[in-house]
Amino acid sequence: DGGITQSPKYLFRKEGQNVTLSCEQNLNHDAMYWYRQDPGQGLRLIYYSQIVNDFQKGDIAEGYSVSREKKESFPLTVTSAQKNPTAFYLCASTLKGGATEAFFGQGTRLTVV
Amino acid sequence: GESVGLHLPTLSVQEGDNSIINCAYSNSASDYFIWYKQESGKGPQFIIDIRSNMDKRQGQRVTVLLNKTVKHLSLQIAATQPGDSAVYFCAENGAGGTSYGKLTFGQGTILTVHP
């Protein structure tokens, strides 16, 4: 079955550590996105990538980094520079340049302990 | 637009009533719009979409209306059921320039359906 998979579902991080969230899709989509969602709030765009080896900052990129070495993978690293990383992180993908829906993963809930 | 620092608006309805959820968008060049439903702890799920050359589209129990003049989108849910309780987001897939292909989400609305 085609889809988009995020792992892990829950992640705990100690202050000062970097952690990497995984996002894999087998939909052959060109574009991938990372969003952050805080309780009771909407989705805010962190980074997006429309093609392999290229990505752009979203609205809240500070303290995060990404890579896009393969079409199917778009990992997000939450660095120690992110002051308030506890949140729900969502990955999505779409066909590049097309007016098509985005498919979302089931999310990763990151908690700083 | 973004909902940075804001809490989501809420809509409470009785089971069986019709629900209308509204969304304003900012990019007049956007040519494609989507409504998503998000249940607690899960990723958003596609409900219905509409292209800018249309002003209305109907699905099963849902209707999306698009008013390009005032840049407004609405989602109508007929005979709302308790299982419809969720957060609803609109999204636009901006057309032209650097925003092409980039999804931008609206603020979202929390829908609560009472039995």
Distinctive features:
heterodimer; A: 113 residues; mainly beta; seven-stranded mixed β-sheet; four-stranded antiparallel β-sheet; 11 strands; 0% helix; globular; B: 115 residues; six-stranded mixed β-sheet
Q: Helicity range of the residues of chain A? A: under 10%
Counting copies of identical and different chains, the oligomeric state is heterodimer
Task: List unreliable stretches of 5+ residues of chain B.
Answer: 1-5
Instruction: Write down how many β-strands of chain A occur, each being a DSSP E stretch of 2 or more residues.
Output: 11
Using a beta-carbon cutoff below 8 angstroms, give the protein chain pair with the largest interface and the number of residues from each chain: A-B, 32 and 33 residues
* Low-confidence sequence ranges of chain A: none
The secondary-structure class of chain A comes to: mainly beta
Can you count the helices of chain B? 0
Quick check: average pLDDT of chain B?
87
Biggest sheet character of chain A: 7 strands, mixed
Q: Which word captures the global form of chain A?
A: globular
The sequence of SSEs of chain B as H and E is EEEEEEEEEE
Cα-based radius of gyration of chain A, to the nearest Å: 13 Å
Number of strands of chain B: 10
Assess the beta-strand content of chain B as a share of residues: over 45%
User: Based on CA inertia axes, which overall geometry of chain B fits?
Assistant: globular
SS-based structural class of chain B? mainly beta
The span between the termini of chain A is: 36 Å
The helix count of chain A comes to 0
Give the termini distance of chain B in whole angstroms: 32 Å
